[in-house]
Amino acid sequence: MKRKTFIRCTAIILSIIGISSCNSYFRTITTINADGSCTREIYAVADSVFLAGDMSKSPYLFKLDSSWKIIPVRPKHPNFKGQEAKLQKDCNVKVSKTYSSVNNIQASVRTVEEELKSIAAPGESLKEIFFWFYTYHTYTVTYKNIAHLFPVSIDKYLSKKEQRIWFQGDLSSCKGMNGMELQNYLSTIETEVQTWYNRNVYELSFECIRTLDSQKTGSPYLSQLSQIKDSLFHVNENNNIEKTASFEHFVVEDVSRMLDTFFHTSHYSQLLSHFNEKEINRIYPQYQKQMETLSSLLIIFMDYELVLPGRCIETNASSIKNDTLAWKVDFPRFFAEDYVLTAQYKTINYWAFVVTGLLIVFSLSAKPLYNLWKKNRKCN
Asked: Contact at 8 Å (CB) between 150 and 200?
């Protein structure tokens, strides 16, 4: 049973992409101050062991040090309202930290895993352009794409435009389409994405079988695997009439049956029965590592909120309420391309108004004062 569960893990990981409910939720609030410093608060769901002080059970994706304040909060926090309450109501802990500059954040974050750096420590910058009465600020957060973590590139199946439509919801290229045209277009993209899902599951399963087969001396089919790899997938993909992203079609057991059918043998079914979970981990360690990495990335998502010290004049935020901007951050949005959050705002340089006023007063009073001085001088 353990072996059967293990060899299905990779496909399950990839199928998680299509699952709407996720297991790791965070609410991040960044408050930028007028002097360029900022405070970051991150809400999460923690177990009782972490709340009791065991830092090894931290729910966070980065390592907490003494500079972070850990604050237990009651579920159903009063700030959690509307539909977001369904996700946020379970958050029972908050960590908080103040940074002297937004530009220092990324360098100070130590992630739990290097592969999680894209989401745990995105690039952040705050740039300023000074004008006399106002200073314009541009805040940017960049989540680096993680497509390279998958064995098969999505570029083979979707154009960059289609990737932005599917993963980031950018429908700007669909302007002018009616509902039926848009539905047909999205269905075409969905079919290609599902094929890509299946191909990734197949690649991982196939390489696992190939590695296991290489451990057996005198394998009669090992030398032929590279030649039939692509055709074997396409034949079985075409047989999958519904073209679903179900992992039931391309896990290790299924690929072993495909190979047995192709070679008219029972060699690969017997091969799998020969190895247990520990042996597979020993022979093909990167298999387990890749599964753990992908599973970590695919079940993480957050609500990102930004509080500004000035009036927002331009942003790509999905929602704006008062001085708070909000974005959704999850795996699909920065899978194929970098996902960039931007906000431009301006702050008033009050001292500039004071100085300008004094200059105006001085300029208006300078001539009368000069004339008075000149008159008094003549009298003397």
From this structure: yes
